[in-house]
Amino acid sequence: MEWLQGLNHAMRYVEENLTGEITLEGAARRAACSAYHFQRMFPYLTGIPFSEYVRRRRMTAAAMDLTAGKEKIVDLAAKYGYESPTAFNRAFQSVHGLPPTAAREKGAALKAFPPITFTLSIKGEEAMEYRIVEKEAFRVVGFQTKEPMTMEDCFEKVPLFWKQTSGDIPRLLPLMDGTEPMGVLGVSAYDGDRFTGYFIAVATKREAPKEMDEYQVPACTWAVFPCVGPVDTAVQALQKRVISEWLPSSGYEYAQAPDIEVYFLGDQSAPNYRSEVWLPVVKK
Predict the structure, then answer these.
(1) 131-283: what CATH class?
(2) What DSSP string runs through 106-161?
(3) pLDDT of 154
(4) What span, in angstroms and rounded, lies between the C-alpha atoms of 150 and 18?
């Protein structure tokens, strides 16, 4: 239950600071975990990045201010931490679909995003198969995202990167030499607690072609979860279950190492397609 209480402390921190400073580190401290752990866990539990949740809550409060009073937009921009009315206007439109000036019009359609509260949900009707793997450091070779990307961009930009790279994936297959994990890998790379990019690659000891990138995955303990189903839905659904159901009661927590998805040959849209999720873990 401690992890649940910690998450709700983090949500109270957001509510108490809608007109002040809200940082990932501040939320993580109240959740009693590292910023690294918190920013990886939050999107799986809620379906949105932490920064987007904060923006939605602030713009919900800003809409209430607009409809209830006569505060100037420039004053509301400053109140909710935006450096200019232009930036505030952009954030407001991204949430409500209309500019702040239109929010005061009679009949304006606005959106309200209530505060998130984490509650205990009794589940477990569906077994989760997993195995624990101790693995030495290994090297991956493949294609790295060149566009700057934060961890919170991953849900949007990684699928696009897979689409852009699909024609090059057959060039990876001859590099496989039996190094585990076998398959085409999606690797979220980290330097300490900083997200540094995403790789589509294979594990190999072979020399990297000049046009490809390489990355050294550190030695780590991994919780490996088999996944069955179309990759566009099954992998993310499994990752959410791992974070929300398995991890809190496992005796483990996130380790500072990459998340890895392992994709095997086959029809990735088939209901019986098999893949794996490798979660880096460390004993609490």
Answers:
(1) alpha beta
(2) TT------PPP--------SS----EEEEE--EEEEEEE--S---GGGHHHHHHHH
(3) 76
(4) 23
